[in-house]
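Notes from the pairing session

We agreed to fold both candidates in a single pass and log them together. This is the raw record for the first candidate, unedited. Please don't reformat it; downstream parsing expects exactly this layout.

Candidate A
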Amino acid sequence: MDGTLVDSEKLWTIALDDYAAHRGGALTDATREAMVGSNMTRSMRMLLTDVGAPATEADIEAAASWVAERMAELFADGLPWRPGAQEALRRARALGVPVALVTSTIRSLTEMALETLGRDSFDLTVCGDEVDGRNKPDPEPYLKAARLLGVDPADCVAVEDSPTGVASAEAAGCLVIAIPCEVPLAPGPHRVLRDSLTDVDFDALGELFTRAA
């Protein structure tokens, strides 16, 4: 979702920088880059460590609550679409392809983002706080989505923007359309690199879906 469908990674940067300043520190570029695609718990642990603050479970929960509240404020102002994302969701619906949203973002913020994305754009959503701690790059988020859709992960195409997300989808057995946003993505045997969703041939994907069905 973040960085793939909506250009919200920049909003995360604002919230994370604000929290780092709140704790009297500054988030380094290297740590911010490593956070892209990660779930809230892992990101907060990295943030606290980066600013030299304690990172106990209670500290992580408090940081997550602070950042989630700040993100809710930013999400409330609306989310800009990534290039081609809105049309991609419409095209997938028109082709009858089952679609799952698999995001590391927590459910409460995802629900806000769905006001922009459209709840009817997806058959189901899997959020970062719904995989029992087995977050990306673990394959579980994509495996869970495939189970809920009733499909083989090998018949799925994932669209991802981060190394963490790509690793998760590939480990689950999915083919990946990799579209970098905030961080570069390297070529790989189970991924197709594209500059944006406007470069994806959804008619060809629809034909693959029809043959698989």
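Candidate B (folded immediately after A)
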Amino acid sequence: MTSTVPASLTRTADGSALQAVFLDMDGTLVDTEGFWWDVEAAVFRELGHELDESWRDIVVGGPMARSAGYLIEATGADITLPELTTLLNDRFEERIDDGVPLMPGAARLLAELSEHAVPTALVSASHRRIIDRVLCSLGADHFTLTVAGDEVPRTKPHPDPYLLAARRVGADPARCAVVEDTATGVAAAEAAGCRVVAVPSLAPIAPADGRVVVGSLEEVDLRFLRALITGMD
């Protein structure tokens, strides 16, 4: 595959071909997947419906429109998708008003990527208003750019968010490492042609060609990510 990235990005000083690192947000960098479910359950309870716990795996990691739409259909709640989307985002913002807990290893990994000036993007299916609030806990200075789910025509599981991130940092997707926690996010990254590190949060993810599965971000560092890319050569 011919790369169109600037020569300065093609290889680092140690010969690594890693050009950029893209990270999911909810469940990957911050421990908020459970927050979303709690908010959804509370909102639907107020609407007179109890959510079935089995639906949790269906809506986790998905874009707001898909998750909210599924829950409306499953419950028959008398609320429109735009109304529910606004309500869920409002309630989630209230929930994280005092900050969000970071996943183990997240702060260390972000600091290491910043220290070595690795182009790093936050790529999330969450809306911009939510990302900007969470960045107060993560530190916006750690990211070269951020991509929100409401800023692309098609969000995860489509490849668009990761292709956009690669284009904006001037990188070849095949030379980008992606860290994700859900099957939806993994599908998006792999469809974009990126190499994937899966750190499952709520549902298991199986290893596959071009994909490494680990138990925690504590197992992921810059050397690990560089090896993920150079290992395909």
